[in-house]
Amino acid sequence: MQIEGSVVIVTGAGSGIGRALAAEFAAHGAAVVAGDIDAAGVQATAAEVGGRVVAMRADAADADDIAALIDKARTEFGPVDCYVANAGIIGAPGLGDERDWDRILDINLRAHIRAATALVPEWLQRGSGHFVAVASAAGLLTQIGAAGYAVSKHAAVGFAEWLAITYGDDGVGVTCVCPMGVDTALLQTIRASADTAVRLSADSVVNAGTVVEPADVARQTVAAVRDGAFRVLPHPEVAGMVAQKAADHDRWITGMRRYQRSLRTD
Predict the structure, then answer these.
(1) What is the pLDDT of residue 266?
(2) Where are the domains of the chain?
(3) Average pLDDT over residues 126-142
(4) Which of 158, 153, 203, 220 is closest to 17 using CA atoms?
(5) CA 124 – CA 116 distance, rounded (Å)
(6) β-strand pairing of 129-134 with 172-177
């Protein structure tokens, strides 16, 4: 995909990876609609990035707000070339309850499905378009301490794979981003939580590898979109972990239990 001159929507753009993605796309010549449920945060993103970036308060999981983001892009810049489904939450620790599951699946999965449903028919008519799913290494491995996060991120990866297989021959590109620890407000919040189960989730990520900057994730993501690559691994060691899991699932689960025990006794 040619980034220069393209029209891009980025959700969850009020801070962290989303803000970095808006800046990186803009730096490569894209016009960006930055959306976030945090109106002040996303306005700050637009002011900080400057250029052809407009901010809009939007709930990334709400079908009407997704439609409004798409309409905003069309009005300001033209048809949407790329949609970056970046908004996400860690959710409740442990198993959670029914409301917890509804909320995390809405934000981490159904938001992707609703955006694709709104845009893919148009992209098929045009013969071009690109969908970016910001998932997590938890979608390839798992997440200690938080079932909802692990399951929703697995589902987000699965949905991205399905899109790429189903529509790749028709001009629709898909990129799936799967980082481990990224230095964002979300990670800082769960590391400081008073809930031991929440802190366990954070520790499992931080101790597994280097915590990278949002800008690192953004640079690799935009490069992957430009090159038409599917998977982005800001932590390259994740590839080896995935290979170990595939080679011997039982051994991998045993190793993850051992890792969890070590975190609980630290």
Answers:
(1) 63
(2) 7-237
(3) 97
(4) 220
(5) 11
(6) parallel
Q: Which of 15, 9, 215, 24 is nearest to 130 (CA)?
A: 9
Q: Which residues are catalytic?
A: 149
Please write the tens of the pLDDT for every residue from 22-80: 999 999 999 999 999 999 999 999 999 999 999 999 999 999 999 999 999 999 999 99
Number of residues that make up the chain: 266
Structure tokens at 217: 């994730």
In angstroms, the Cα distances linking 37 to 138, 161, 210, 217, 235 are 24, 27, 29, 22, 28
* Strands in the chain per DSSP E: 7-10, 31-36, 53-57, 82-85, 129-134, 172-177, 231-232
Give all strands (DSSP E) within 191-260, no chain letters: 231-232
- Give the pLDDT confidence score for residue 187 in this predicted structure: 73
Q: Give the max Cα distance, the chain.
A: 56
Write down the CATH number for the domain with range 7-237: 3.40.50.720
Please answer whether residues 163 and 85 qualify as being in contact, where contact means their C-beta atoms are separated by less than 8 angstroms: no
Per the CB < 8 A criterion, the answer to whether 55 and 46 are in contact is yes
**Alpha carbon distance 163, 197 (integer Å):** 34
